[in-house]
Amino acid sequence: MRVLALDLGTARIGLAVSDESGTLASPLGFLTRSGDPESDHRAVAARVAETGATTVVVGLPLSLSGRAGPAAEAVMAEVATLRARLEVPVVTHDERLTTVTATRAMRSAGRSPRRRQRGDVDAAAAAVLLQSWLDARAR
């Protein structure tokens, strides 16, 4: 079971992929938003095909209280479009604090993320999201 994770941002889409066993998540880079949602969704579909993903996990940006605000509503609208376009299941998973966790991990590894490296942070956040989803399924 290979899983692709998406961290949907306004400027970039962070990507992560699991290993074949669905145990370990790794950053896969990012897609820069083109300004054309259809083009962005074609790029996501291409990544699904390239990786052989059987499921797509999308980060749901809930508030710290767990409520869905405008950002979560925007993600859910995009998830609906992706579900109609992709031939694999598209599920959401709480992404609270994934960017903070990814940034801290990068800093502790000696990689202080700078503005021009935001794509690396987005990919790392997608990996944190995916690992959380994989771990929850393993329980």
Structure description:
By secondary structure, the protein is an alpha/beta fold. The chain has one domain (3-138): Nucleotidyltransferase, domain 5, CATH 3.30.420. The chain is 45% helix and 23% strand. The protein has four helices and five strands. It has helices at 37-51, 70-85, 98-108, 118-138, and strands spanning 3-8, 12-18, 25-32, 55-60, 90-94. It starts with a strand and ends with a helix.
Order of helices and strands: EEEHEHEHH
Number of β-strand runs: 5
Strand order of the largest sheet: 3-2-1-4-5
Largest sheet: 5 strands, mixed
Low-confidence stretches: none
Query: How many helix segments?
Result: 4
Helix content: 40-55%
Structural class: alpha/beta
CATH architecture designation: 2-Layer Sandwich
Distance between the termini: 16 Å
User: Per CATH, what is the topology?
Assistant: Nucleotidyltransferase, domain 5
Offer a concise description of the structure:
The protein is built from four helices and five strands; from the N terminus they run βββαβαβαα. The chain is an alpha/beta fold and 139 residues long. A five-stranded mixed beta sheet has the order 3-2-1-4-5, with helices on both faces.
List the helices and strands and how they pair.
Blueprint: E1 3-8, E2 12-18, E3 25-32, H1 37-51, E4 55-60, H2 70-85, E5 90-94, H3 98-108, H4 118-138
Parallel strand pairs: 1-4, 4-5
Antiparallel strand pairs: 1-2, 2-3
Helix pairs in contact: 3-4
What descriptive keywords fit this protein?
139 residues, alpha/beta, Nucleotidyltransferase, domain 5, five-stranded mixed beta sheet, 5 strands
